[in-house]
Records
---
Amino acid sequence: MHSDFLIPQTIDGVAVGEHVVPQTAEETAAILADASRLGQAVIPVGGGTSLALGNPPRGADLALSTRALSQVIDYEPTDLVLSVGAGARFGDVQAVLGEHGQRLPLDPAGGNDATIGGLIATARWGPLRHSAGTLRDLLIGIAVAHPSGTVSKAGGMVVKNVTGYDMPRLYHGSLGTLGVITSANFKVLPRPRAEATLVTEYASSAEAFETATRIRDSGGPVVAALEIDDGNHWLLATRIEGRDRTVRAIAERLAGLAGPGLALEQDESAAWWQRYVASLDPATAHENVTIRFGIRPRATSALVEGLAPVLAALNTRVTALGATPAVGSVLVRLEVRDGSAARLAEVQRVAVDLAESATILAAPPGWKQGLDVWGASPAGLVVMTEIREQFDPRRTLNPGRFAGFL
Amino acid sequence: MNRDQLVERLKAIVGPGAVFSRPADLLVYEYDGSVDGAVETAAPTAVVLPGNTAEVAEVVRLARAANLPVVARGAGTGLSGGAVPQNGGIIIALTRMNSVIEIDREDRTALVEPGVINLELSEQTLPLGYFFAPDPSSQRACTIGGNVAENSGGPHCLKYGVTSNHILGLEVVLPDGSIVWTGGRSPGTAGYDLTGAMVGSEGMLGIVTRALVRLTPTPDVTLVLLAAFPDIETASQATSQIIAAGIVPAALEMMDNLTIQAVEPAYHAGYPMDAGAVLLIEIDGIEDDVLSTGEEIAGICHTAGATEVRSATEKDERDLLWKGRKMALAAMGRLSPNYYLHDTVVPRSKLPATLKRVEEISQDFDLPIANVFHAGDGNLHPLMLFDRRKPGDTERVLLASKEIISYCVEVGGALSGEHGIGTEKRGYMTLVYTADDLAAMAGLKNSFDPSGLFNPEKVFPKGYMCGEVRALRMQAMAQKHGIYAL
């Protein structure tokens, strides 16, 4: 069930030297140790759905594909735990879980073609984060190949575990800079028995956000996701998941709160969200720039309201926008006229002041020169640099791509 | 710097009333909730109770200059010796830093100091419709800072997740005396997940001085089911079947007959005295959902062989059913003067076999073992009942522990689900982790605390983190990387 994705010739404009496809975790570690000794740069590649993320690497001597590490290692449906190779395609993993009425509740852009290892390394999420969190909260064990030539494991196959430090969380979102994830264990969840979505339309973003807040305060735990999208109008989409009767009861309550709209059930509901997530996929942005803002949830509405005039003054145009108000996440796709490195830097200077974080998820490689796409240098960069030093002293893995050019 | 000079310097930082150094005052700080005999103790040189972050940082800088270990401590309820100093040094007790600084209803967060007591936070937020989900049994006494250090669980983490799932950001004093904020209110913070690395690090990476925690909305309706079974095996089968049916209750707890014998006469919770085991199952959410799920669970229990299933929705009734569970450890005094417990975790489907093995071990060592535990998570709490005054009893308990732990690891389990490794279980770490696994953890430790100032002699096996071992490891790594000029 491996990914069919072919390794690209360049990573963010940097030419790839060789391709390697290790067959085991140990072989992966051996390749990393050799590369480290030779001073080579290694770019780990999964499904290739998120290669635009990060700063351009300082080198790309080797592109290391995890595609051969794609087996389901252990799946115990009655225990709700799964162990799977990092190269397994997310869509295939969901299909295996689906046969037993289970799932990993995660719906990131490009999700089905992404690999498990890639999703962990890039800490990706989608609208379901509203109710389900991220893989960080489901990861119960991990195996990682390091540039020291070793493979380390942490956690296990039980759902609750404080045996030693919580290493899986350290690797989640570390963009492969501490090692190449070779397998991961998850706590999986029962697939909800029913779902429905209500899509309503509003004249202003403020009205949409107010409704979202009302729904959230009334909704209890079954309101799975709230999204605001201004493809053409201000749309508010609310997804409900749960048992049949519950979903119907909540849907009725919702209609009263949100007003009349498009009511979708079961497969239609799921398909709506798939289309929506795909419409904001950074990987399909091409000559556009995708920025993800992070802000405290209560300020999401003000951020969205304030964005348009500021961005317009920079001679850019918002071509898509999606927000998850309860999370404080806003994804914006921008057309930057007369794009260049200097122009992107100008947009970033303004963007970082608008929210607590502003990450450039995708931009044409040439425009990324000289700026840190992760935004302002993170608090704790000194400790982060030490962590990188301990795990990858010669900066073999993804050199320069991570926050603070780590 | 001699001891008197050190004490004077500490008093200058935190005030004369917030430093203890007389042997009688220090005695209590040689202990925590762990069992004497399972954990070695060593007296601290001094105990300080700082009043704010800046004072914590200054004490750390002083300790560093004096080359004295630092051990952070909350309420001292830990069960693995995590707050017990091994090499003396300075204990930083955070109990005076106990303000709830801010409760934000809109963002559903609270900003708290580390000394805030777990239950008191929920008591403050309940009138607003929120609670702090982690609920360890010690929640009346334990602090949020301690919960962060140990990544505490509790009955309700089956549905709501452990402490780590509820911590959004931390203010931390690092071993070099610097102060750093990790994480925060917004998603997508750049860089490594330092918050995730800090939670559960047992005070070895940094000292938490503020925590931004997630608040959870209180459910509309809560239902508690009490199901009685003829024996522990049918009860564990029912547990597996509930989970396998795709139901995740808020809590799913088991008590065996020995526990019922201790608890029922003390609290009259209404557990049938002749039951081999009872399950306490809580479901919460919106009314419709809760009632229909309750019916489904009752059906599964009956099919599995339950002799009786009762349900309670009113708060008083629910509290009474829970009282027996929450006070179970306290009731053990009725059966024996001392108890010692472990908190291994096994895959849920391995529960029946594991409990059978525990019963065998109980017989082999002629040691009564009561089981009261988080069945839904597979998190055991075998309580070995003994009398430490009787020669040989403590030794037998430790030998039986070893048997239980070894079996749990054999069936794919973990050493600890929520109590932590501390000094108590460090000797068992090599049962589950290889040298390479431990080296990665040591890498994390070294990046925060290269000189091993914070909470030494914890988590890693004895001798693992000492200077020589580290030097050898560094040398080996350097050679691997072609660097020879060390």
---
Amino acid sequence: MRTLVKPRSLFIGLSALCLLSIWLSLALGPVSLPLFDTLRAALRLVGVPIAGEGLEQAELILGQIRLPRTLLGLAVGGVLALSGVAMQGLFRNPLADPGLVGVSSGAALGAAIAIVGGAAFGGLPEFFGPYLLSLCAFLGGLGVTALVYRLGRRNGQTNVAVMLLAGIALTALAGSAVGLFTYLADDATLRTLTFWNLGSLNGASYARLWPLLIVTAGVALWLPRRAKALNALLLGESEASHLGIDVEGLKRELVFCTALGVGAAVAAAGMIGFIGLVVPHLVRLLAGPDHRVLLPASVLAGATLLLFADLIARLALAPAELPIGIVTAFLGAPFFLYLLMRGRH
Amino acid sequence: MRLSTRLITFCAGLMISHASLAGELPQRWVSAGGALSEWVSVLGAESKLVGVDTTSQHPESLKSLPSIGYQRQLSAEGVLSLKPDVLIGTEEMGPAAVLLQIRGAGVPVEMFSAQADLASLEGNLQHLGRLLGDEAQAAQVFKNYQQQLDQHQQQVKAAQATQQAPGVLLLLGHAGGKPMIAGKDTAADWLLTQAGGHNLATHSGYKPFSVEALAGLNPEVLVFADRSLTGEAARKALLKENPVLASIRAAKNGRIYEVDPTLLVGGLGPRLPERLKQLTAEFYPAAPASQ
């Protein structure tokens, strides 16, 4: 099959871009550090024993602010893009995004409950308060997705069309519940809620990072094993099962991985739109629909795009910061349109 | 050495160096909180501010300082890039994780209260006085403020001896459209009550209103705070966007007044007593003007 780019060169290009974005994400920020200091501090962080005099600030900024932030960006971007591929594969529709199975709206509902409810109840214990929001968002996403999946099942079969419609209905329901919480919120909690819905990698800490990294690694290692099955599913459900694929099992895995991945990403960084929908698309336009390429390439592309978006988010208005959800769409949408128009000629 | 041990040593080092510096006063301040920045200016320390958040709009000269964004959405590196000796803000400041990072970088984060009451203001001013090394001045400023408010209460009492408290509503809006009514437990409610008005709204917080309910309450006086327009333009926009307002008593008698919405955030600010006086004069037009 003819594609714009050969898989090999795609991987080389994406890896190079990804490494570049990681380096820029570590080297650039509102605090300007001399390049040489950044380099030395980075080497010390990975355990190279070199003299550390005069590096205190560089090490602190790099180790406690930029590194966790970069890792968070990589994990969130990667897992969102991967979930996008899973959903587009499951629904056999390039317009599908992780929101379709209700994970985003469920997470938003969980967050609204945590933000508004948390403000109403006040005195949460110190150690738990900061994690309440993440936990509620994660559980909300998982809960609504489980419900959507349950509603789509009949006689041991999962009807994807019913699931899609159930997803739409539950998204609307969750949306109105969020609306109710918005109404109940006071001015301050309302602003918190609004900003949460636009996502941010701001304030990343290792404590919040580990659960997401583990989930991302798990999903990123598991899904590519099912690339062949996903390719077969492109032909249709019955065709795939004639080819010997356990279609029901596959659907369950796809929904589970998406709920887990997007739930964890949203819990750590708030709602970041666009990546899950468009990154798989971008990769498909470049390298064709083969999931053996699409899955790993989307992880790289999603992570890279998010890191670049975050660079703009933290530099454009420094010392203030833009919500990253604004930047991802602003950056990705024109590029996507360009590829789309180019593909038509 | 491993990363964590090195960090612990480093943080311990920071604490020690910080403690030895405790005698020295911070010279580079970043402020996240509108009323707080105003008080810093009143206390004569505006020149020490090197960055403010988006709620710090007064005095006008603060707008030329680097903006650290909205107070709930601070960025650790952004704040640190201004090389501050201290970050001041209210409990509305956040996110908590970012404040931790800023503290971790050795910049003390000083917390103040955003409550709209005198006790909180007294605490805030004392705290600012300590940080500025001039507690006597801060105490004097508070005393004057308290006196102004006390005097104002006398004025309200005198007015209420001859006139009934007017029923008032306060609308908070954006270019006239979709205003919200200020209910109980808001700074706006405090302002109306303190000025001698009777807030007709009984809900709590700011809520969107139904035009029918508003017409039904039929307030004698309407106060509005517009976030994007001021003066006559804001008044016109309000009436144009909400034609039903023209039918209430306040509009018929031309008793629609404006307050600056920045007065309603971040606790009691230095400009409040002045506006309270005016508001009382507007609520009680027949009373003799205050001294």
